[in-house]
Specification:
It contains eleven helices and 18 strands. The protein is an alpha/beta fold and about 350 residues long. It starts with a strand and ends with a strand.
Length: about 350
């Protein structure tokens, strides 16, 4: 039977979110109902609330979650009730042109639940990134449920579902950071610090963290930064070049998403170095660079979408790194909160006071 659960809903653009009762249907073919244990408060949820993603209100927010599979659809054979999972917002279809070419991390037809969750009056909800996990239970496609080691506490494991994976993957997957590389990361929020952690795990010899907030820079050192640069006090391009013998970094990860920091990243890299953009820009932003510089500096300019991850491969790996003490997921959890505190958590996140607030159930 359909279930009624409490959840966080954004009804209209820029309006405060509300905790409401929603209806979660029984899972159909290819679907699963997950009992949510913890869900991180991510900037993307705030973008949905502000109408910055699209205008398909009302939204069921939350997408960075870990939980227990409660029930599965009649044709689901790779999950069972009780499985401990992190929910992914990319579930490769296996049949699109990218999947057929062996690049499922670029899947163009990622799978979501077919049935809608609804308000009590039957109004369909748009789940954030196809998940909607600021809810006691949520309906997703079974392919979105990635089984991980249950020894990982859900407050930490759930963060792999979005921000940590985006940053870690930007360094390891997209940027291909290797042993001995010099790396710079611009923007030391949750995603930027995850990129720093990824670069450290990959064996970078130098990791320069760039931000305008000393508290964030202090946090960056805990995740593996070897040097910090407050760009209010120093030219970050000149500072990174000085640290690298005048050459620039092999890989620069831009985790802010504005033109100024992208330009800094471009000129901060070594010749033939790589810029990875993982910061999400707003639609109106533009950048202008001399074409001769694009040509003459060589290298690569890449965008990293979800850390170019394959959840079934990467989520269990990151959990294993966490459990072995090589990836400090607990360090990203600034506070745990209740479901009715999400609106206040948005304010703290927007002001830069937290890396992650995590809703626990």
């Amino acid at each position: 039977m359909p279930q009624e659960v409490r959840a966080v809903v954004a009804r209209e653009r820029n309006a405060p979110v509300e905790v409401e009762t929603i209806v979660v249907p029984d899972p159909g073919p290819g679907e699963a109902v997950v009992k949510v244990l913890a869900c991180g408060v991510c900037h993307t949820d705030l973008h949905y609330r502000q109408g910055g993603i699209n205008d398909e209100f009302p939204f069921l927010l939350g997408h960075e979650a870990a939980g227990l599979v409660e029930s599965v659809g009649p044709d689901v054979t790779d999950l069972k009730p009780g499985d401990y999972v992190v929910i992914a917002w990319r579930a490769p279809c296996g049949g699109c042109r990218s999947c057929r070419r062996g690049r499922p991390w670029y899947c163009f037809d990622s799978r979501n639940a077919a049935q809608p969750m609804t308000l009590l009056d039957g109004t369909p909800l748009s789940p954030a990134l196809g998940i909607g996990a600021f809810a006691e239970k949520t309906l997703v496609h079974s392919g979105q449920c990635v089984k991980v080691d249950p020894a990982a506490r859900p407050e930490a494991a759930g963060l792999i579902g979005c921000g940590v994976m985006a940053g870690f993957g930007a360094a390891v997957n997209t940027g291909a950071v290797g042993m001995g590389d010099a790396v710079a990361v611009i923007g030391c929020g949750g995603v930027g610090n995850a990129a720093i952690a990824g670069a450290a795990v990959a064996g970078a010899r130098l990791i320069a963290a760039v931000d305008i907030d000393d508290a964030k820079l202090d946090a960056a050192t805990r995740f593996g930064a070897t040097h910090t640069i407050n760009s209010r006090d120093a030219d970050p391009v000149a500072a990174v070049r000085e640290l690298t013998g005048g050459n620039g970094a092999d890989v620069v990860i831009e985790a802010v998403g504005i033109a100024e920091t992208y330009r800094q990243a471009f000129y901060m890299r070594d010749h033939a170095g790589t810029v990875v953009q993982v910061g999400v820009p707003t639609p109106e932003l533009k950048i202008e660079l001399p074409l001769i510089d694009l040509f003459s500096r060589g290298g690569a300019l890449k965008s990293s979408w979800y850390g170019d991850c394959l959840p079934s491969r990467d989520f269990p790996l990151l959990v294993d790194l966490y459990l072995s003490g090589k990836l400090d997921l607990d360090g990203f959890v600034t506070e745990t909160i209740g479901l009715d505190e999400v609106e206040d958590a948005f304010e703290r996140m927007h002001s830069g006071k937290v890396l992650r607030s995590v809703v626990v159930f």
